[in-house]
Amino acid sequence: MTENRYVKQSFRSDSSCIVAAMRAATRRLTQLYDEAMAPTGLRITQFHVLAELERRSADPPTVGELAEILIMERSALGQTLRPLERDGFIDLGHDERDGRRRPVKLTRAGKDKVVRGRRYWADAHEKFERFFGDDQLVVLRETLRGIAESPQLPETFR
Question: Tens digit of pLDDT for each residue in 19-30?
């Protein structure tokens, strides 16, 4: 009971800090999606990486390119990729056209994992959509993508 009260109180913060609110929301959604994804053995961050690699299978990105696509620090992405490589879901290959380029490729096992994980992700997404509302979710997604992708935003902080 004490733990639930603490969680409820921590989300009622009167702080005007948008970063604190966004990070709290991100942690909460990550926990919920991780629970939903548990039967697959993947965390939501791992599933997201594999799904992105599936989308880009025709032209696999390098680690650096994938970090840019996912808006992640390269070192953080490396930590996420290591267990995926160890478990045989990805392969850090070699580009025949450019030997310096090491594309991150989804293996057959990785493709199977994405297929299996997609239904758990879809179920979690549907639950969140029902809770949050279709129209509000569209606005939220657009707002968050705008923050993540705006080339002008960094200029406002200089």
Answer: 999 999 999 999
